[in-house]
Amino acid sequence: LVFRSHRERFLNRSFALFLFFLALWVLCGFPHHLASNPSDQQVTIVFRMAHCTATLATGTFFLFGMAFLSGHRPGEGWRWLTVCAMLLMASCSVTDLVIRSVSQLEPGFRVESGPLYNLFVAYMVFFGFGGLFSVALKRSRSRSTDRTRATYILLGFGLFMALAMLMVVVLPEVMGRDVTSDYIFFLVVIPIA
Predict the structure, then answer these.
(1) Cis ω for the linkage preceding 115 (within 30 of 0)
(2) What is the distance between the alpha carbons of residues 185 and 182, in angstroms, rounded to a whole number?
(3) pLDDT, tens digit, for every residue of 115-130?
(4) pTM score, two decimals?
(5) How many CB atoms lie within 10 A of CB 74?
């Protein structure tokens, strides 16, 4: 629906692509629950795919935020930087550079991070909150309909991203095991609502 309406506009294309990658990310939250006793390798693959699709969704959200702010396609430099960083980080996410291994514990998972995990977190913070910052700037400069749209985007995706960082990065570090990442996929309801 977003793509069909003004499909020639970069804003609509970037938002549609963001929603597509977000949907793929949500699908990554459940495959390991389909097997009665998934192997550690299967769970590791699911975690890597979730990180990969989250990387792609976050990069396209950043591009959407910049397009929403300016009203047109972001500059070529920003597009190249974002796409290159997005593809590089997505490629690293499906290897042991971001997630080395995952094993099931009762309850939760033991996630062994790879050498580029901190870079992955920095990428998610920069591009995720960079996109939100662009939307916030648009909100502060706008009146009426655009201001209302920006407010809804900020509330929905801002709350979702903050909770995602808390549940996927902060709590597992504090607790020493990941018992919250299975719940993050359900929180996608917040921006949809």
Answers:
(1) no
(2) 6
(3) 999 999 999 999 999 9
(4) 0.89
(5) 21
